[in-house]
């Protein structure tokens, strides 16, 4: 559904995108992760036909974003990281205006608007003015605006930016519902664990380059040559820390409350041997096992901390 080939974008002497290539199949949710200034918004702006690439090709639904912008705009719903709203309109009037802009007839607009307000959980705010809505409600209203013409593709640039925890959860649940409805979605965010839960595929971008791509666990396994062991015991924490730090295949060990976290680069057999030896030595173990890394671990592993 979305095809990007060798995408470059320069602003004067600044190179914002450096040969990005990616493919997003129909119905997939793709998470775009990267530090500020990495190139996420630039890429999404080109997809949304708001900016032309310096080189390369971007296609949405088979249409070229540069030469067939009108056709692309019919297919997409774009929610930028910051968008203006009309404070002197009610939520209903705001969506009615945008529905009319897409050519929806009055009777159809009314039906669609009521559906969108229900989807984004704003039915009770239909007649309230936009400037009276909370930030989270405005974000959800902006998502409803992007959906009013029933696009096949959603481009969501930091949709949860600046929201409180409850509002982020509400936004996440709406996006899950859209995923289940078969929409193709590309979503950027710094809220990394939520992307891991929502997305089929993750792409990590830094310095205008795609530095890693795949399912979260695939990226984690590829970038981590070691596994993380969580060892819980009743006492002897300091003794075990010293013991582990002098143990073959243990890269590092730190205490985390009642647990010891150990980076281990040995095999399954060597991990089993370690467990057996700790039991034989009388350490009062409560639990011993691997703990999964999360998307934040992957992000820190594959990026250098660049960006603005």
From TrEMBL:
Q: Which InterPro entries match?
A: AAA+_ATPase, ABC_transporter-like_ATP-bd, P-loop_NTPase
| Entry superkingdom | Bacteria
User: Could you tell me which Gene3D superfamilies the record lists for this protein?
Assistant: P-loop containing nucleotide triphosphate hydrolases
A GO molecular function annotation here is: ATP hydrolysis activity
SUPFAM superfamilies attached here?
P-loop containing nucleoside triphosphate hydrolases (SSF52540)
Asked if Membrane is a keyword of the record, the answer is no
What would be one Pfam family of this protein? ABC_tran
Point out the signal peptide segment. Answer: none
Query: What does the UniProt keyword field contain?
Result: ATP-binding, Nucleotide-binding, Transport
Q: Which family does it belong to?
A: Belongs to the ABC transporter superfamily.
Q: Tell me what this protein is called.
A: ABC transporter
Protein source organism: Aneurinibacillus migulanus (Bacillus migulanus)
């Amino acid at each position: 559904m979305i095809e990007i080939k060798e995408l470059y974008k320069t602003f004067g002497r600044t190179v914002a995108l450096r040969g990005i290539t990616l493919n997003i199949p129909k119905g997939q949710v793709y998470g775009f992760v990267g530090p500020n200034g990495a190139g996420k918004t630039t890429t999404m702006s080109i997809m949304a036909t708001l900016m032309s690439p310096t080189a390369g090709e971007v296609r949405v639904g088979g249409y070229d974003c540069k030469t067939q912008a009108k056709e692309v705009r019919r297919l997409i719903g774009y929610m930028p990281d910051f968008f203006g709203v009309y404070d002197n309109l009610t939520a209903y009037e705001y969506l009615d205006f945008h529905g009319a802009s897409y050519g929806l007839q009055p009777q159809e607009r009314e039906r669609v608007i009521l559906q969108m307000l229900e989807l984004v959980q704003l039915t009770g705010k239909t007649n309230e003015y936009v400037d009276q809505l909370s930030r989270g409600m405005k974000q959800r209203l902006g998502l409803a605006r992007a959906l009013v013409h029933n696009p096949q593709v959603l481009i969501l640039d930091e949709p949860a930016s600046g929201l409180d925890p409850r509002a982020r959860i509400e936004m996440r649940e709406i996006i899950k519902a859209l995923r289940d409805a078969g929409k193709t979605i590309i979503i950027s965010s710094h809220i990394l664990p939520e992307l891991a839960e929502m997305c089929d595929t993750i792409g990590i971008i830094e310095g205008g380059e795609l530095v890693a791509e795949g399912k979260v666990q695939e990226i984690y396994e590829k970038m981590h040559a070691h596994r993380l062991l969580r060892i819980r015991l009743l006492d002897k924490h300091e003794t075990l820390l010293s013991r582990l730090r002098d143990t073959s295949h243990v890269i590092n060990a730190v205490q985390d409350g009642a647990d010891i976290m150990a980076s281990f680069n040995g095999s399954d057999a060597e991990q089993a041997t370690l467990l057996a030896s700790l039991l034989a030595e009388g350490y009062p173990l409560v639990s011993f096992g691997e703990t999964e890394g999360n998307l934040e671990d992957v992000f820190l592993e594959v990026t250098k901390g660049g960006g603005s």
